[in-house]
Write a structure and sequence with these properties.
Structural class: alpha+beta
Bound molecules: glutamine
Order of helices and strands: HEEEHHHHEHHHEHHHHEEEH
Helix content: 40-55%
Radius of gyration: 18 Å
CATH topology: Beta-lactamase
CATH architecture: 3-Layer(aba) Sandwich
């Protein structure tokens, strides 16, 4: 496969889509992103890396961090984690509160905000000796092989200041007895994980264990078990794009996870990990051009899983 040719063609063909949609501004620190920025990177299980456009520009990975926290929490709790968070698509917005009351404070899945807050809560329960956010940052640095990866303090502060919806979700789940720790402590770690700043190149490298049964193929380190990676990829496929998860599976056909910073991480099991970034979002809060670029990717490479 001529990966570089594929990426260069996508970067060319995606031009008319750049800037279509809206940059997230409900977290004010995100609103400064250039709506027309576009970057994409592929890392293959052989360790080769290909990139195009702004693939070296750091951006806020936001909800893509939910994949990393799920990996850590599954390592701690195995399937017991699913006593407190479901594994069904929500069909609702990422920050919706409506289902939570009907379903006794148990979030539908780990990739909506409420579910990710429970996952972070689990991490805090298991690692009192170290702040939850530090553990997540360490994993992001280890997986990307990049000590440069950092938590953007300005974004984290902005999330905390404007995070009343997330605060509501956390306290609501606390009222049902589902959240184990102090809601403010959990939220602080959650805001920090969302504020992780990475480039497409770093993110594609970080996602490689998901394409290789849980083992980093370059360092040979076991990051997650084979069974856990199966679970994570299944959840990315069914729940990774909120109420447009079906649409993403329909058009792209790969496990993927989006974030409101405009990034998407996608996995081709056995072959490669792909990261794309373009900040203008569609109505569900997923990168418009990023989604279209991945659709082009799966068409051009015939790597659509179906
Ligand atoms: N930090 C964002 C929030 O909590 C993450 C949402 C997202 O990326 N979809 O609202």
């Amino acid at each position: 496969m001529d990966w570089q040719k594929v990426l260069d063609e996508i970067a060319q063909e995606i031009q008319p889509e750049l800037g279509v949609g809206k940059v997230a501004d409900y977290i004010p620190a995100l609103s400064a992103a250039d709506p027309k920025a576009f970057g994409m990177a592929v890392t293959t299980v052989k360790g080769e890396c290909y990139r195009t456009g702004d693939a070296g520009v750091p951006f806020s990975i936001q909800s893509i961090s939910k994949v990393l926290t799920l990996t850590i929490a599954l390592g701690f709790e195995n399937e017991d984690l699913f006593d407190r968070v479901g594994r069904e698509p929500s069909g609702s917005a990422f920050n919706s509160i409506v289902q939570l009351e009907q379903e006794q404070g148990i979030p539908r899945n780990p990739f909506i905000n409420a579910g990710a807050i429970i996952v972070t809560d689990t991490i805090i329960t298991h690692c009192r000796q170290k702040a939850g956010a530090d553990l997540i940052l360490d994993l992001a640095r280890k997986l990307s092989c990049s000590p440069r990866v950092r938590i953007d303090d300005e974004v984290a502060r902005s999330e905390a200041l404007w995070g009343n919806r997330n605060r509501s979700l956390a306290y609501f789940m606390k009222s049902f007895g589902v959240l184990q720790n102090d809601p403010e402590e959990v939220l602080q770690a959650y805001f920090c994980q969302c504020a992780l700043e990475m480039t497409c190149q770093e993110l594609a490298r970080a996602g490689l264990y998901l394409a290789n049964d849980g083992v980093d193929p370059v360092t040979n380190q076991q990051i997650a078990t084979h069974a856990h990676v199966n679970r994570i990829n299944a959840l990315m496929m069914t729940c990774g794009h909120y109420d447009m998860s079906g649409d993403f599976a329909f058009h792209v056909g790969l496990p993927g996870k989006s974030g409101v910073g405009g990034g998407i991480l996608a996995v081709v099991p056995g072959i490669c990990s792909v990261a794309v970034w373009s900040p203008a979002l569609n109505k569900a809060g997923n990168s418009h051009a990023g989604t279209m670029a991945l659709e082009l990717f799966s068409e051009k490479t015939s790597l659509n899983l179906f």
